[in-house]
Design a protein that fits this description.
The protein has about 80 residues and is α+β, with helices and mostly antiparallel strands. The chain contains two helices and four strands, in the order ββαββα.
């Protein structure tokens, strides 16, 4: 999971690798607070500096600054 901001919008991205059961992926993405299932978009060409490798796909969504802060508080900030 990666949280980044650009032009005032906060984004969250999740990278899936290999064969992922769509139902399992839906459960994982649904666990992110403040992001509706319809807000997630597949990003096969990459997004926010994430270039997917062979067999990977990136899913991303815009999140509110409130949820961005909660995620950074819980998991830390790597300074990017």
């Amino acid at each position: 999971m990666l949280v980044r901001a650009r032009d005032g919008d906060a984004y969250i991205a999740v990278v899936a690798e290999g064969f992922i059961d769509p139902e399992f992926l839906a459960v994982v993405l649904n666990c992110v607070p403040g992001v509706a299932a319809a807000d997630w978009l597949p990003e096969p060409g990459g997004v926010m500096g994430i270039e997917p490798g062979f067999g990977q796909i990136v899913h991303s969504a815009i999140i509110s600054p409130e949820y961005q802060a909660k995620i950074v508080d819980q998991y830390g900030d790597d300074g990017r």
